[in-house]
Amino acid sequence: MISHQIHLASRPIGMPTAANFKQVDVELPALKEGQVLIKNTWMSVDPYMRGRMMERKSYIPPFEIDAVMEGGAIGEVIESLNPKFPVGSKVSNISGWRTHFISDGADLTLLPAIGIPEQYFLGVIGMPGLTAWSGLMKVAKLKPTDTVFVSAASGAVGMVVCQIAKLHGCTVVASVGSEEKAELVRGLGVDAVINYKTVTNLTEALSAAAPQGIDVYFENVGGEHLEAALNVMNDYGRIPVCGMIADYNAASPIPGPSNLMMINIKKLTLQGFIVIDYFDQFDEFAAQMGQWLMEGKVKSEETVYEGLANAPEAFLGLFEGKNKGKMLVKL
Questions:
Q1: Domain encompassing residue 64
Q2: What is the DSSP annotation of 263-331?
Q3: C-alpha span between 197 and 178 (Å, rounded)
């Protein structure tokens, strides 16, 4: 069996390019007792992967040069010498960026038969959904009276943040980068939408959209968005820091917001968080999200690229604003 794989060819400086990736074909050995052969059917590309392309200490080891990239994927067992994973089983795994791989089962999770599309386990009921839920419910300790500001609101995490906040009765202000994305998040029932690419002053636009101030800022972008949020936050506001995508491809450090004193003046709480710290609460999250999905209370939006060869293009599209909702590659 040949496994078609995408390897990291070189470490990017600034914005990655197609030259940083290469496709490699690897012949897999015969199965040993206890092993299974997985054919991946869907794979995820996510912004955090950009950090793993850098040689630095972080919460997760960097990708190795001339080694297969890794990421969330959904696959099907096509050969099995492990009774826990019979042929035909659908599994989630972190061995994406390849068409086939062999596993002893330790890194596989059987998908529950709850009647939703399998790729949802890479998005709304997968890591992005858990990120949104844990950031709002566990870090920000969301309250129904909160006004919530969401940057990158049309992305995989942002869309779920908007919907969870609305389901809890909050007022939600969403920031996006195009009119098409603005229409998308309006369809989620948010209370106000800002197209940050067409406003001249983001603080003024946010103040107009949330005249009562904001209590929670779900931070996905950084830079100008964080500065505007600090200006408009109410006292004792909470900022769960999921990511700062505006900085991910910077070749040199970007100056921070000029108004960090607002953290002290307004007695704000900023807390960075990593979704892996909340994996032990996945069952609680999945039970709630599964119920919402079955009741039609949460929508999923996907941008799909076809074929492993297009995985680098899909990944680069994350930083060019090409995704609406979850960016996926169908293998």
A1: 2-123+300-330
A2: HHHTT-EEEE--GGGGGGGHHHHHHHHHHHHHTT-S---EEEEESGGGHHHHHHHHTTT--SBEEEEE-
A3: 7
The number of folded domains in the chain is 2
Residue 246's contacts (CB-CB under 8 Å, 6 or more residues apart) are 221, 222, 223, 224, 225, 254
Could you tell me which of 214, 217, 207 has the C-alpha nearest to residue 239?
217
Distance in angstroms (rounded) separating the CA atoms of residues 43 and 20: 19
252 lies in the same domain as 233: yes
CB 241 within 8 A of CB 272: yes
Average pLDDT over residues 262-284: 95
Same domain, 35 and 143: no
Distance CA 314, CA 250 (A): 20
Are 97 and 183 found together in one domain? no
Instruction: Enter the DSSP assignment of 167.
Output: H
In a domain, 293, yes or no: no
In a domain, 218, yes or no: yes
> In this structure, is residue 141 part of a structural domain?
yes
Mean pLDDT confidence for 93-110: 96
Round to whole Å and give the CA distance between 209 and 231.
13
pLDDT of residue 251: 66
pLDDT tens-digit readout, 306-315: 999 999 999 9
How many angstroms separate the first and last alpha carbons of the chain?
Answer: 16
**pTM for the full predicted model:** 0.91
Let me know whether 147 and 18 are in one domain.
no
How far apart are the C-alpha atoms of 289 and 153, rounded to whole Å?
18
Assign residue 271 the CATH number of its domain. Answer: 3.40.50.720
pLDDT digits (tens, 9 = 90+) for 144-169: 999 999 999 999 999 999 999 999 99
CA angle at 123 for the pair 297 and 179, rounded to the nearest 5°: 75
Query: How large a percentage of the chain has pLDDT more than 70?
Result: 99
Q: Kindly state whether residues 216 and 131 are assigned to the same domain.
A: yes
User: Which residue matches tokens 């505007």?
Assistant: 228
